Amino acid sequence: MNFDDDYRRVVLEPARAAGDAPPEDLRVRYALPDPLTPAGVAAAVKQVRQCWRRARGQLKYRRLVDRLEAEHRELAPLFAAAERGDLSGLAERLRGGEERGRRRRTQARARLADAAGTLHLVTPAELEGIARDAGVAAGELAALAREDRIEVRVPDALPAAAPYAAFRNVRASLDVLGHRHLAAFVFGPRLAGPMRVLDGFAAPGVVLDRAAVEEAAAGWARRSRDTSTTHAGTVLAALRAGDPAELVRYDLVERLRERLAQRASERALLRYAMEDLGVEPGDARRLVFAVLRETAPGGGLEGRLRALLDGGEVHAAAELANASQDGGELPEGAAVLAAEARQRVATAVRLREAAAAEDDPDRAWRLLADALRLVRDLPGAAEHQRRLAPHPVPELRADIDGAAVRLSWDASPSTAGEVLYHVVRRLGRPPRNAADGDPLPGPRDDRPPANRPLFYAVVAVRGEAASPPTVTGPVVVRPEPADVRLSAGDGGVTGRWRCPPDAARVQVVRGGRRVPATRDGFTDRVPNGVTYHYRVCAVYLDEAGEEVATPGVRVSVTPSAPPDPVFELSAEPDPDDPGLLLVRFAPPAHGDVELVLTEQPPPWPRSALVPIEEVWRHARRLTATPSPAGLAVRPGAGGWLLAVSVAEGTAAIGAYHRHVNLPAPRRLLAERRGGRVHVGFDWPEGVAEVELTWRVGAGRIATGHMESMLGTALGAGGPERRLVTRAHYDTQGGVNLPVPEDEAVEVAVASSGLLGGSRVTGPAVTARVGSRTVVHYDVARGGPPWKRSLTIRLTAGQPVRVARLDLVVRAGRVMPHQLGDGDTLCSWEQVSVPGELSVELPSLSGPYWLRCFADDDVVELSDPPVRRLQVTR
């Protein structure tokens, strides 16, 4: 068995049985391999689409294949990506198809349960209709029905007409006698168990036959004559005239039909059949199912006529009425339906005859459509309509699009019915019909034979009839050279391309002069700095053996000397904008410098010449802004900042700088607080740690990148370093450094992080706190009572000179806190420390305070204990 046979059996036939619904699972629809591979997917899709085109020639598959092709246009990008190696989109669509298939099966299962209802019974036609509407295979839905214990069966045939002509009188007599049905009349109290009536009458302990009827008649004969015996005689006459079992079944069916006409529910009918009529549960389900599904609840000729009319089989209804009349009168209801059927058939026949005499196929098609709407089964109408060909396409146009041919046409003037278009291609002569040539899937021929005369035809098709072909041609496709690439070097141009297989040679023209070339390329020596324009043409031999050149592919190039690399490069953050780098280098003699950023160290050696496309594959181009200090760039992410010199598609690899994307802290503040220096700053965004470096002494820490800062500092005597986390900084309100009061301190703060397993730091900010000399003083009172004096003793860790010293006195109990808080008792200039100063004790009556203040940038005055500064009398 070949592929087409397998595909029809596995895919097309189940899809057609499901109402021409293509399978949701693309793996099944396209016979995709498992596991998916780009080559396997491309081969499977090609083979399946070829099978579609061959299957479309069969009428039963035409609508299904049209749906498959329409949906394939939406799926084509997925398969194109898969053929290129990207299988992710197709895999995602396969998972989505499985989910949609499950959802459709769930919906079909729910609809089947609704149709089965309380009885858990459905007809095969109902199951197939639900499967077709839901797009599920009927066999799959039947399996789901078995899982849900839903039985699929054809409804039992029920009697449409009474087997006894006077059955209406029998029913009236049973009602008068008070019997619920005929079986109860025959057996009376002996009918104790449930009875079966569909496959022959059966009940526990009784047998319904002629003997049972005669036994019931003997019982009524022993009674005295009255009106009840008269009614019993009516019933017995019916039982003796026909088959008792058939009469009992018809009696039960009619009673269920009456309840159904009174709009009883399915559950109520089942309960009535089992409890009131005493039917065995299995037969009760089948009886109710058959009554609910029968097309003619009224039964008889009228019911059959109504069923045929409702089903659209009007001609069959008219034939049935004619055959049933047989010279007699039809019942009133049947006569009305028969008249309607005959009238519709007569009108449809007139329309069919008018269509047969009509010259315009479109008008004939519409007349037949009207006839079929009236009488769907009108003999010969559908066949005649399918044979009415549409008008041909007015004009077909063919345009060459590269190596393909694009076809376009105006629609057929026919507007009646569904008009489809078939496109064919024929080599050497025009096609005669839709089968004369190679069929094309659409209005584009992507692979036409090259350098050969081609004729195209489009055929309008309606039903089974096709219009005469509309032809265009001959069209000769001569592809241009593909992938034309020119490379400019130092004083030369090199060209490369792919020559079409059918071309005799390739011709290259520059400035009206031919350039010697092979089938694959050329080399042309030209001066640098001038732009040259080339036309690359494919040359073919026509049928007469003459050379024919294509219009050609036009390309331009400017040769130049190779670019010179950048040998030295420096990069520093902008002091006003830490995210901005200022890059400095000496401009090369040849080439334009561009800055790129790589995530890893550049893979090329310095001074290497590589195609610029290769650089773009490994690096990200940065936008550079000229500034007085060089080029300003904003790298954003960290990496290696590389300078490349570019000239005519060639890049010279230059120097690079490792850039760490760690922002610098802002607004660094360092202030002395006694024996400590408090450091505060704005914490940098997105940084978890900073590195704090400080050195006590006269030296300074170098600014700039942290690595160079540490190297300079360590060489000068070794600073102290500390890693500070954000949590520690926030908890302590900053950082406090223990620093002697008489020593200067240099502080540097930089963002820190891990890169490639090693710790790196960003640009640092620095601050300096100068040294201060602490001078201690004491106040002593002495001298005789008549001449009391004050002595101020000054001490320091090293000799120093205070620029100005003021002694302030303030009456009262509040200490002076600054120079203006009291009266200046005495002032001294250029006071040497250590030393003593004397002054006469002030003559104040109440308590007062004494305190010294120093006016000096490098001296900090330290007060004695408070008791030494307060004077009480």
TrEMBL record:
<feature type="domain" description="SaeA fourth Fn3-like">
    <location>
        <begin position="673"/>
        <end position="766"/>
    </location>
</feature>
<dbReference type="Pfam" id="PF25835">
    <property type="entry name" value="Fn3_SaeA_5th"/>
</dbReference>
<dbReference type="InterPro" id="IPR058694">
    <property type="entry name" value="Fn3_SaeA_4th"/>
</dbReference>
<protein>
    <recommendedName>
        <fullName>SaeA fourth Fn3-like domain-containing protein</fullName>
    </recommendedName>
</protein>
<feature type="region of interest" description="Disordered">
    <location>
        <begin position="430"/>
        <end position="451"/>
    </location>
</feature>
